[in-house]
């Protein structure tokens, strides 16, 4: 990456556009802007496509490759559905081919200045820019259980792979795709899995090829599933739950709380973006242009949906890039 990853110092010259977030949508925005002759820097607090780096090992995307493509670059894969590793390679190649200026492992803290003369303040310095595109996704702030003991070291909101859990009691909390896939992988790798579900059933939104697999493993008793069950406390003896039949303590060598994620609202506030008072706490933006209440500051990708994190994903969020880039190019006069 060295040929296009400028050091913070080298990239500190003013730019036209700062993209916050080097996810698939942030990269799509950056290359669309750059192709219109504007100077752009992409700032990410982590690695390139940091969210995907954090996804489970060998995770299979639901989307076929052409629906994940950005910038017109073909996404060749040997698989009908790409793996996480394919996507990591693909987005790296795109960023490299476009010679995007990347400032990685640099966290954006806030936005200062006025329209046309903004300063993005990071934990490494300041970056003068005329426009800002916020493409910060949703994967950094988990929906916490909110119970005593949830800071326990054997509880994680992020699942990677099952191999450390052979012969272990693992409690998986959640009823959607991530929880379903983790429970299936874990049981097949030799863990004793208890699935804790707050509602009445495994979500209907679980993909049609995963849901019956999980339901059959539950029916045959390989996965124990507790419905209408809430976590009360992570205690020394295990996970204390309240089931319809009363309280129970589940043995747990490890706990995966796969209960979803939410945008970083404190960051949005620090960037001066207001949020609606609707159920999704939608970041205020024009639905046509994606410009926020702060002139020259745009939202793109998953963050646009607020708490409705499945409203925008790579397939549809990548199209925000051309709209925003055209708007920025046009607003230059
Ligand atoms: C398990 C799983 C499977 C999925 N499968 C699919 C699929 O098959 N098809 C599909 O279309 N979508 C899928 N999605 C959804 C998709 O991955 C996301 O919608 C997508 O990553 C959103 O892209 P984005 O660029 O908007 O945000 P992200 O990819 O989340 O990128 C946001 C970036 O912003 C950075 N950032 C956050 N805060 C700061 C800060 N303060 N300063 C600097 N940088 C910051 C983060 O580090 C991150 O790199 C899946 C999601 C998950 C969790």
Automatic annotation (TrEMBL):
**What are the entry keywords?**
Flavoprotein, Oxidoreductase
State if Flavoprotein is listed as a keyword: yes
- Any single Pfam family the record assigns to this protein: Pyr_redox_3
GO terms, molecular function? oxidoreductase activity
In terms of superkingdom, the source organism counts as: Bacteria
Q: Which SUPFAM superfamilies match?
A: FAD/NAD(P)-binding domain
Q: What is this protein called?
A: YpdA family putative bacillithiol disulfide reductase
- Source species, please? Hymenobacter aquaticus
